[in-house]
């Protein structure tokens, strides 16, 4: 049938004629249109049908495609490629990111890890399920702390101290938020002069203001109880998953037939749960208790999430499972120690702390470097050459080891205090709540005067040398050195 006699194509011709301002539509002869000088065979990569003709319309910078049914409008191939530039860039980035030489040993390909014949392998997209599961864990934590942790803490005798709030003071509040929480004595004297308070009143205000930002004891107990429950469950679950596996007792078996190692469902669910938990910890970081090793905790969470994700994507589940189990073996002991410390069961807390210190030292400073790092650094490349994933994975393991050494230094300091005093000292990572007991027994405060100043029998006169020095500091004068 002649294309010019096709009703559908005639309508499309009229559209092209109107758009281009032409009086006549170009005639297609012998499969070639004289207007665009293109053959009727269109390459598949353009997304056009193979049996189509094309007519270029300059007015709309588009291309008219003829197929066996009707005419249709579409972008010219070069313009269509430009329109999908961002998508193409993402595609190129994705292709670069998943290069086999980055993730797999030499002479290995992703095709070898395709599911076939009932054999299932680990694939990176499996870990996407960790994101919604992390949100579920956050919700579960809120419910657990509200209906399990809080009642349990009250039953065990956890009581929050009654805190006296700091009186509103705009000058002191501004200094507290912008300059520092613990001003020097010279700054304290200057602030006292500006606010019409005594030095002792200013010190008390800062103590009470710092206490307002500190988490209460019940919040600490609830957080520790949630982590204890999770770490204990994952440790018991990890032991049940790995107990009958050869690589638990002989780490070199992690590299047997690597990377052609099938995925076990129970290992997948355990891995997924661990990754979801650490993602949930990152989500709740702004609301969790901030200790002095906050930056190290954030670094640990980031390294752990990266390590779990990378080990799963590169099918390093065997050695990754050993790393997870090694860490879970000590974490639940630490959280149990915190719980008994908050409940004032000092003897149980002391015993648990000694056990935790030994387990931490043995698992993370002996087993971890001699078994885990040794096998990943030496035994993993005995039958194959090193590749990028080999270096990256060992780098992550070494970063964890640096954090282990740092935290054991803190544990060692607490152990030294324990053996000196015969009892468990406070957690040196935590900020201890300050009390107003230092104010007891002081001379009575003087009566407040009309101008806001106070008069005390033991205070220096208003025009004395101390007051003059305070006023000089307030005016910006600094004593010469």
Automatic annotation (TrEMBL):
Domain spans labelled TLC: 219-420
Domain of life: Eukaryota
Keywords, ordered alphabetically: DNA-binding, Endoplasmic reticulum, Homeobox, Lipid biosynthesis, Lipid metabolism, Membrane, Nucleus, Transferase, Transmembrane, Transmembrane helix
Lineage: Eukaryota, Metazoa, Chordata, Craniata, Vertebrata
Cross-referenced CDD domains: homeodomain (cd00086)
Location of region: Disordered: 430-467
Residue ranges for the DNA-binding region feature of this UniProt entry: 161-217
Pathway info: Lipid metabolism; sphingolipid metabolism; Sphingolipid metabolism
Organism: Ictidomys tridecemlineatus (Thirteen-lined ground squirrel)
Membrane topology listed for this record: Multi-pass membrane protein
Reactions catalysed: sphinganine + octadecanoyl-CoA = N-(octadecanoyl)-sphinganine + CoA + H(+)
One MF annotation (Gene Ontology) recorded for this entry: sphingosine N-acyltransferase activity
Transmembrane feature ranges: 126-144, 228-248, 268-287, 348-368, 388-416
Gene Ontology biological-process annotations: ceramide biosynthetic process
Any one GO CC term of the record: nucleus
Protein name as annotated: Ceramide synthase 4
Primary location recorded for the protein, binned into one broad class: endoplasmic reticulum
Homeobox domain sequence ranges: 159-216
Subcellular location: Endoplasmic reticulum membrane; Nucleus
């Amino acid at each position: 049938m002649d294309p010019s006699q096709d009703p559908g194509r005639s309508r499309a011709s009229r559209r092209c004629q109107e758009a281009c301002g032409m009086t006549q539509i170009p005639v297609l002869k012998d499969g070639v249109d004289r207007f665009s000088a293109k053959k009727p065979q269109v390459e598949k990569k353009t997304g056009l049908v193979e049996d189509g003709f094309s007519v270029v319309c300059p007015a709309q910078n588009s291309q008219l495609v003829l197929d066996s049914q009707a005419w249709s409008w579409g972008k010219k191939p070069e313009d269509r490629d430009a329109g999908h530039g961002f998508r193409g860039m993402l595609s190129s980035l994705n292709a670069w990111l998943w290069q086999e030489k980055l993730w797999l040993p030499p002479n290995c390909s992703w095709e070898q890890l395709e599911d076939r014949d009932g054999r299932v392998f680990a694939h990176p997209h499996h870990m996407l399920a960790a994101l919604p599961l992390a949100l579920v864990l956050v919700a579960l934590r809120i419910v657990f702390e509200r209906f399990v942790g809080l009642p349990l803490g009250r039953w065990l005798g956890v009581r929050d101290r009654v805190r006296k709030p700091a009186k509103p003071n705009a000058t002191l509040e501004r200094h507290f938020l912008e300059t520092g929480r613990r001003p020097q004595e010279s700054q304290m004297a200057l602030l006292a002069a500006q606010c019409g308070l005594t030095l002792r009143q200013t010190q008390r205000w800062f103590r009470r203001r710092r206490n307002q930002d500190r988490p209460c004891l019940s919040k600490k107990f609830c957080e520790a109880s949630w982590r204890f429950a999770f770490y204990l469950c994952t440790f018991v679950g990890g032991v049940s998953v790995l107990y009958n596996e050869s690589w638990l007792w002989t780490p070199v078996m992690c590299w047997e037939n690597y990377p052609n190692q099938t995925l076990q469902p129970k290992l997948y669910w355990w891995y997924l749960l661990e990754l979801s938990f650490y993602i949930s910890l990152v989500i709740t970081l702004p609301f969790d208790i901030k200790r002095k090793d906050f930056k190290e905790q954030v670094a640990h969470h980031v390294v752990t999430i990266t390590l779990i994700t990378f080990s799963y994507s590169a099918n390093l589940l065997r050695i990754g499972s050993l790393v997870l189990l090694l860490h879970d073996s000590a974490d639940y002991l630490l959280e149990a120690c915190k719980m008994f410390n908050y409940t004032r069961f000092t003897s149980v807390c002391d015993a648990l702390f000694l056990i935790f210190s030994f387990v931490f030292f043995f698992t993370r400073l002996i087993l971890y470097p001699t078994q885990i790092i040794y096998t990943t650094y030496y035994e993993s490349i005995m039958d194959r050459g090193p590749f990028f994933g080999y270096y990256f994975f060992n780098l992550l393991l070494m970063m964890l080891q640096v954090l282990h050494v740092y935290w054991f230094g803190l544990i060692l300091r607490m152990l030294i205090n324990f053996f000196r005093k015969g009892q468990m000292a406070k957690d040196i990572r935590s900020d201890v709540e300050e009390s107003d007991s230092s104010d007891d027994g002081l001379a009575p405060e003087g009566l407040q005067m009309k101008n806001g100043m106070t008069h005390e029998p033991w205070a220096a006169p208003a025009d004395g040398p101390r007051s003059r020095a305070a006023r000089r500091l307030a005016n910006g004068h600094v004593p010469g050195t």
